[in-house]
Design goal:
The complex is a heterodimer of chains A (about 300) and B (about 375). With about 300 residues, chain A is an all-alpha fold. Chain A has a single domain, classed as MetI-like (MetI-like fold). Helix content of chain A is about 70%, strand content about 0%. Chain A contains 13 helices and two strands. Chain A has a two-stranded antiparallel ribbon. Helix content of chain B is about 20%, strand content about 35%. Chain B has a six-stranded mixed beta sheet with strand order 6-7-8-3-9-10, with helices on both faces. Chain B has a five-stranded antiparallel beta sheet with strand order 13-12-11-14-20, with no helix packed on it. Chain B has a five-stranded antiparallel beta sheet with strand order 15-19-16-17-18, with no helix packed on it. Chain B is elongated, with a radius of gyration of 25 Å. With about 375 residues, chain B is of the alpha+beta class. The chains are: A mainly alpha (about 300), B alpha+beta (about 375). Chains A and B meet through helix 8 and helix 9 of A and strand 6 and helix 2 of B. The complex binds adenosine-5'-diphosphate and magnesium ion (MG). Magnesium ion (MG) binds next to helix 1 of chain B.
């Protein structure tokens, strides 16, 4: 997926794959590819197959916690029937968080690329700095910030602007947490695509009778689309599978996402393994399908 | 379109100055480009050519001075309000648009109804019809250059600005495009302002050449006039090559002034001398001089120097170039066409004299 190449990674797979006959150089390329492929096989393909077989297992009657090999698609039915609200929330919250992150990230990335001057480095550090603290700790910190006696909630309550009286334990807190946690993944690819755009191309828009806004709409934004696409994928995919934010910032029932469902089936429910595996697979399929449709609609050749 | 300024006529820059924080890039520059002419702005890298163009395009505002087209003052207006288009040095094509959409960009912004049809017509003018569907990255440098020209040309701007448009092309392609651009300009009859640091390009293409140095225009005129009679040392050496020697005007002799140099008394037409008295630099083009094995004698008095020592002879086929060290006059170059069947056989170390026709010498400000 060359969308990821945007943030500096290399596309190890594409170059050798393009060579039809393995020449001597081709062989070296395959050799270099080997560790990565082995890694993927051992830590991705094998567990995936394993997970898929688990998702089709059936309970051993009379022996709680025991399963036998089976082709039981009923697990998928259970997963979808019991957990469809979780799926809906996962996709909705992740979609909202992606939208919010985009709205916050684009102006920031734009300012960093074109307006920051000598402050560019400082801004970059500010974007990356949160990574020096653990994801969990930062999310817990948000629980404090958004708590009922925190200044945000008290201020809103004093103004009677908070209908339920709380921010934590609501979907607002979950979406806010998701937005916050995945914001850098939106900022960096957009920044990269804006930063490498030739400023002369944007000037050319003005030279060809487009005013500032039209130039942005017809030149700058389309030119940064590869970055926007990469950023939305890097935000949406992990956000849809996330369970930490819903766990720490959400309520016990009404804001749970699929991740929480999987977690509880795996760790808290006896006999939950097949359902958890089926949930995982369904989520993966749903995300893949959405991403595929999205990239088909907005993707550039560069990404496909 | 709001703010768009229709304007027709000559492009006029009046006392235009552009200062950046620590540096004055364009210094009190005034010039007039007649409507419909091919105008070349020639100068070394960093002399302020791009800055001048950018001010005409509106991409940069002058620190002082005014820019007009005809009677319309354009100073202070935005780029999209000016009837001016630019062919950028780096082409600056829109990477996300096809060639056709790149060319149709300007007409679409101006609300032209048959924008795509106009784009196609212009693409055929630059002979790119067959590539209209491609993206810019799928084109060669020369093809991208044509797209950049078409994208500007399609708008029929009152003035078309070209910033070293051929700089990135190889020599052969550059020669082809020079002819091509000249053809297009003749065909569409627009005012072209062509920036270049290549003196040959400027002279072959332009009706008028302005030689620019350190943010100022040194001299302006038709290429042959400029070449024949440079008025400053800089022009004498930037536009072709010159043998120059400093001297002093201390007498007149009919239509001529007499220039005294350290070793010689030389004659110079009054009309070809930048100063009627005082210090002057005496010059002759290498190809206007001849080399002699013996003192050419009193017949050539005032139009020759010597004796000097021949230091180098290089045969280039059609011509032979000699380098001669003349005491107190420095190193002179002599460029003689190989017309004679029997050549004088000079070798490095020989003592030689140099002469020229009196009408070819010129005197520039020292
Ligand atoms: N934005 C700017 N800030 C500071 N100096 C500049 C700027 N733009 C150009 N200059 C300086 O102005 C001078 C002229 O530049 P330019 O017009 O690009 O020259 P040319 O096109 O003749 O090579 C150069 O010395 C350049 O460094
Ligand atoms: Mg330049």
């Amino acid at each position: 997926m060359s969308a990821l190449a945007h943030i500096g990674g290399s596309t190890s797979g594409s170059a050798p794959a393009a060579q039809p006959t393995p020449t001597k150089r081709g062989k070296v390329a395959y050799l270099l590819l080997l560790p990565g492929v082995l890694w993927l096989i051992v830590f991705f393909v094998v567990p995936l197959v394993q997970l898929f077989t688990v998702s089709l297992q059936s309970k051993f009657p009379g022996y709680p916690g025991y399963y036998y090999r089976d082709v039981n698609f009923g697990n998928y039915l259970t997963a979808v029937v019991d957990y469809w609200p979780h799926f809906a929330r996962s996709l909705l919250y992740a979609g909202l968080a992606t939208l919010l992150a985009f709205i916050l990230a684009y102006p920031l990335a734009y300012a960093m690329a074109f307006k920051a001057g000598k402050w560019r480095g400082v801004m970059m550090i500010c974007v990356i700095a949160p990574f020096f603290t653990s994801f969990i700790l930062r999310t817990i910190a948000w629980r404090q910030i958004l708590s009922d006696d925190g200044w945000i909630a008290s201020a809103l309550n004093a103004l009677h602007l908070l209908p339920g009286g709380h921010i934590t334990e609501t979907w607002v807190a979950v979406v806010a947490g998701l937005t916050y946690n995945f914001l850098p993944f939106m900022v960096l690819p957009i920044y990269a695509s804006l930063e490498r755009a030739d400023p002369k191309i944007i000037e050319a828009g003005g030279d060809l009778y487009a005013n500032g806004l039209t130039t942005f709409r017809t030149v700058t934004l389309p030119m940064s689309m590869p970055g926007v696409l990469a950023g939305t994928l890097l935000t949406f995919i992990p956000a849809a599978g996330d369970y930490v934010n819903a766990e720490l910032l959400g309520s016990d029932i009404s804001t749970k996402m699929v991740g929480n469902g999987i977690e509880s089936q795996f760790f808290r429910v006896v006999d939950g393994y097949p359902t958890a595996a089926a949930l995982s697979f369904t989520l993966m399929a749903a995300i893949l399908a959405l991403v595929f449709l999205y990239v088909r609609k907005y993707g550039t050749e560069e990404l496909l | 379109m709001a703010g768009f300024r229709e304007a027709q006529g000559d492009l006029v820059l009046e006392n235009v100055t552009k200062s950046f924080t620590t540096f004055t890039a364009v210094d009190d520059l005034s010039l007039t480009v007649p409507r419909g002419s091919f105008f070349a702005l020639l100068g070394p890298s960093g002399c302020g050519k791009t800055t001048t163009l950018r001010m005409v395009a509106g991409l940069e505002q002058p620190t002082s001075g005014t820019i007009r087209i005809g009677n319309t003052d354009l100073t202070g207006s935005r780029p999209y309000e000016r009837p001016v288009n630019t062919v950028f040095q780096s082409y600056a094509l829109f990477p996300h648009l096809s060639v056709r959409d790149n060319v149709a960009f300007g007409p679409k912004r101006r609300g032209v109804k048959d924008a795509l049809a106009q784009a196609d017509a212009t693409l055929s003018l630059v002979q790119l019809t067959h590539l209209a569907g491609r993206k810019p990255t799928q084109l060669s440098g020369g093809q991208q250059q044509r797209v950049a020209v078409a994208r500007a040309l399609v708008n029929h701007p009152e003035v078309l600005l070209l910033d070293e448009p051929l700089g990135a092309l190889d020599l052969k392609l550059r020669r082809e495009m020079q002819v091509e651009l000249k053809r297009i300009q003749t065909e569409v009859g627009l005012t072209f302002v062509h920036v270049t640091h290549d003196q040959e390009e400027a002279m072959t293409m332009a009706d008028t050449v302005a030689v620019m140095n350190l943010g100022k225009i040194e001299q302006m005129g038709a290429p042959d006039v400029l070449y024949d009679l440079p008025r400053t040392k800089f022009v004498a050496n930037f536009l072709g090559q010159s043998n120059l020697m400093s001297g002093h005007v201390d007498d007149t002799d009919g239509d001529n002034v007499v220039v005294s140099t350290a070793q010689h008394k030389l004659r110079l037409r009054k009309s070809r001398a930048a100063a009627g008295s005082g210090d002057i630099a005496f010059g002759v083009r290498p190809e206007k001089t001849r080399i002699h094995n013996a003192d050419p004698g009193p017949a050539a008095a005032g139009n020759s120097i010597g004796p000097g020592t021949l230091v180098d002879v290089s045969f280039t086929g059609v011509a032979t170039q000699y380098l001669v060290d003349v005491p107190e006059a420095g190193r002179w170059a002599v460029y003689e066409q190989n017309l004679d069947l029997e050549r004088i056989d000079s070798r490095p170390g020989d003592t030689v004299w140099i002469s020229w026709d009196p009408g070819h010498a010129f005197g520039v400000r020292p």
